[in-house]
Amino acid sequence: MLYLNETIRVEPTRMKSYVEQFVGVLTPLMRRYGAELVGLWQALQANDFIDLWEVREWADLDRLRQAMKEDPAFVAYLEQAYASRMNWSVKILHPTPFCPDLARIKRDQIKGGLYMLATIPIVPDRLQEYLKLFPNHGMRLEEKHGLHTLGYWIGGGADQTEAFNCTQICVIEDWAHWGRFVESRAKDPEVAEWMRRALFYRTFHSARWMTPLHIPY
Known about the structure:
alpha+beta, Alpha-Beta Plaits, 2 domains, 40% helix, globular
């Protein structure tokens, strides 16, 4: 599997129509060429839209790129969409062995009212060791206190050193639940020990909050 992750800044006056066209026109077009929508979100207090698509293989991604140039419906959509965009970026993310795929996300109903998108730079020669540790430590402890992982991928850093960055999307019910999560995690000595240990592998991370606009399950 591959994952296509876009961040698109839309003209404030065109945000509503952009979402309508995204759901009504783009989503069926993407599905036609093998890309299934995981979700569309809006960054908190911003006019940035963030979307995530699951693609089975590179050949599907190649067909999708070709369709954007040759399919009249796709061309028409993109011409209209580009007029609404102020800027955008696209990243290809590679799932880790413990990353839920869309089938599991749907089956387990991994969704909520508040999402966190994090980019975690990893010390290059410690990446594989970190990926072996994280499911049984970091992710397990997050789940223990109520923060669920929608996905965890290799790639996604803004500095373009994609192989040495991880991207994670977490989901929780709402701000009240987040407050309870922070409070309970702070009292957990196992969390404190993992946080100290994790500093050996990662330097810092950046995160932004998102609210769901269209979750197709």
